[in-house]
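quick one
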Amino acid sequence: MKKFKNTCLYIRNKALIILILCPAICFSQDNRAISLEALQMKNAGLVDIRDLDSSITVHLLYATVNNFTGEQMYKSLREAYLQVEAANKLVLAQQYLKQINSDYKLIVYDAARPQWAQEIMWNKVKDTPMKRYVASPQRISMHTYGVAVDVSILDRNNKELDMGTPVDFLGELAEPKSETKYLNSGELTAGQVKNRELLRTVMKKAGFRGISNEWWHFEAFTRVEAQKKYTPIK
Ligand SMILES: [Zn+2]
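structure w/ zinc ion:
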């Protein structure tokens, strides 16, 4: 009994130390340490995609300064959350990809994105030509409904396949609708377009829809469906 009490005290003290040192960390119902940003997603019914398939790599661009805003928007969020149905589709896409090439796996650069983060992004671009690449906060991004994902493919050495531009490249070269033009001009190679096509093939087979101006962005539902089914994440 004494040993049990000591163990309980140890766990409680450890939890207190973590809470004091990391005010953005709290504990979920299953007692796992979790950031406040992640807890907000969980409480809204979203799932951490790596809880469904840990072979999917996650590297959130907006948890770093290496994104087009130059700001680290997510202070503590490091996991990719999606609505359950969207996450299940992503797991399927990963399976389809592995069936085609067992050395390949998906890497997720962004998934559910709260409205406040979308507002930061919009304020960066609203007075520039780049505004056509970012959803206005009034319109509500499909990321904010938790049904959009920014994704690419890693090879067996965890190196991203060459897609012709990095993710988050705001320009025509990243636009699927302009691929023929840039293939003809030599600014995109056949190999780069083939890699994009592979990504589109597995994502579409799993039930996602691509968009015409970003090769990395896919949506699990139409806007009308998302509006009916889900509430935007605050
Ligand atoms: Zn996106």
